[in-house]
Specification:
The structure is a homodimer of 355-residue chains. The first copy, chain A, is an alpha/beta fold and 355 residues long. Chain A contains twelve helices and 15 strands. The interface between A and B is large, with 41 and 41 residues.
Chain lengths: 355, 355
């Protein structure tokens, strides 16, 4: 227990402390500017050298404000501008633009760290994988996979803490319109977001973290989804609830909503114990364990969203610098895309879809 | 807040403090003997006057041990023995025997407090309602409905705490074979338990408490269920996960398992807040509230299973003594039976069933 507590925040994945990956950041929304830039500034193995945005002017202004060497436009990026100044790209644009930036990165020989979900559709995600495979390293930025609470949960699952896994509950909900009141935001536009909004943007946390923890893939999904508020007129899933059957008959149930009180939760129940992340996502994961008649809540120091992002960038840099295997690679992300597409199809058809 | 805290355990349902209902307890399993008898002993409006069991000998022995006036056999009960000694019956037998004891009670003019689920099948539950309706008071012993945490949650829902209800998560799991290792126990025998084991015995808590709190009924259910362990060979639902769509498009997801680590949980999420019972059932309900950026956990004095049962008996007695309406009456319980039957059918057919 003593070692476990002392090693709680330890980076069990780190293999090098030497070297630096210089990033071009593509897509300068609040997440990139307010979370990713400071996260990389505090990281061990990364630095931001180029910002890429819609216009040279905007990119240069943000570069100056954030003490970054170069600012270039999307067009300049595609033309190979400043390509000596960076080693890798971070793609943080709306989903439907990931492919084009990854394709250019692959042509330029730059490693790609791509936000999740990896693209708007399965077909485009497949093209993204093909563009990078055997060309450049590709990682999907599932930041739960380097979150210490999740990695400790993974160790516990692996060591048999749960006994036989029985069921999983995952929830991810937020009041999107309170965070951004704009009805025209890209997350509500299927041309930019893809199949929908709440499963693509939120449900994916429950799905991917469950896959990561249990190492079992869904074989069948069923789902219900619906939209009510006028801002959600173009997307089918203002709210969604899904049922996934994993290999070995593990029952997974999830909810996601873009118009609900903030709520993130993941609970794995087995024959012998439960492992709970409550809250689970968005930089505040708290681990709760229960087995026999004992319950433990692991209260630890600050590990906010920025710190989570720092871990992702350093994991990626560690892999790129040592030419090592990446766990959440393109093929790993592609499985989520297929699951999400099947969830949407199951909701539309009103019956389970086999995977 | 001050009044709310002071009134937390208050019986907002109580209308009389006068009178006594004398009970015949039918079915003397551990629940009746270890929980119900002491609960009634401590109750305000009830007393146990007759015990009814398989043989006169067993009933008389248990009566003597528990300081109860009379002990009679099932046959004697049906013949009207000792009927001057009790006003009401508590039916705590295996599900498939509820009907016959309720029928006799109705013939004898005795009020009926019947355990949930009310019978083994919808058809038998309908006969039970018909036997009692317009003859004697009938209540189904949903003890969550008189649990203070649940009643306070109900007040909050009614006052708009959640905003618009979005989704509900309900879980109820237990390690049945650790509690009772007998593979031949009635909960694993469909002739005695009915449609199955985990939804009938455990899932019903999530279903009924959600109905009680939201006052919305399911319009469609979908479900998966499976059995693995040899002891569960005759029942389809060692584990089950279900999705219920309520009126007003509230998405409900639930799990139940008879072979899992103990876990009871109910969470209601709305556009403005969440109301959580964690743990939820089996005499340890703890209320957790969240709205705006504020979270509150309501930690209260002991309110164990016996205390929960005392509330149910006194609520029932209060209604019988004042001839008042019973909320969880036969028709209310019948809805649960229809939901459970539909859940089993949906799992069998592999597609949603409309209600």
């Amino acid at each position: 227990m003593h070692d476990w507590i002392d090693g709680y925040d330890e980076r069990d994945w780190q293999t090098t402390e030497e070297g630096t990956v210089r990033y071009a950041l593509i897509g300068l929304g609040w997440w990139t500017v307010d979370v990713a830039i400071p996260a990389i500034e505090h990281s061990d193995l990364g630095e931001v050298s180029v910002l890429v945005s819609s216009s040279t002017e905007k990119a240069e202004r943000l570069a100056a404000e954030n003490d970054v060497e170069r600012g270039i436009s999307y067009d300049q990026y595609h033309d190979g501008a400043a390509s000596d100044a960076y080693d890798a790209v971070y793609v943080g644009t709306p989903n439907a633009f990931h492919l084009e930036y990854a394709e250019t990165a692959a042509e330029l020989g730059k490693a790609v760290l791509c936000e999740k979900p990896m693209e708007a559709t399965v077909e485009r995600a497949e093209r993204l994988v093909e563009a990078c495979e055997n060309e450049v390293p590709l990682m999907i930025a599932y930041r739960m996979q380097t979150e210490p609470a999740v990695r400790r949960a993974r160790e516990l699952v692996e060591s048999g803490f749960l006994g036989e896994p029985v069921s999983v509950y995952g929830a991810n909900g937020q009041p999107l319109l309170e965070m951004n009141p704009d009805h025209d935001q890209w997350r509500l536009d299927p041309d930019l977001s893809g199949y929908g909004t709440s499963v693509m943007d939120l449900g994916i946390y429950s799905i991917n973290t469950t896959r990561y923890l249990l190492r079992r893939e869904p074989v069948s999904v069923a789902s219900r989804m619906s939209s009510h508020h006028v801002a959600f007129a173009d997307v089918p899933d203002e709210r969604a609830s899904s049922s996934l059957l994993l290999e070995d008959d593990v029952h997974v149930i999830t909810t996601s909503s873009q118009r609900a009180h903030e709520d993130t939760h993941l609970k794995l129940t087995g024959t012998e114990g439960t492992i709970e992340l409550d809250p689970a996502f968005h930089g505040e994961a708290t681990l709760k364990l229960s087995r026999s008649a004992v319950s433990v809540e692991v209260d630890h120091g600050e590990f906010d969203a920025q710190r989570e992002v720092r871990e992702v960038f350093d994991y990626f840099a560690d892999r790129v610098l040592t030419d090592a295997e990446i766990y959440p690679d393109g093929r790993h992300g592609l499985v989520d895309m297929r699951i999400i597409e099947a969830i949407h199809r199951a909701a539309e058809e009103g019956e389970p879809v086999e995977l």
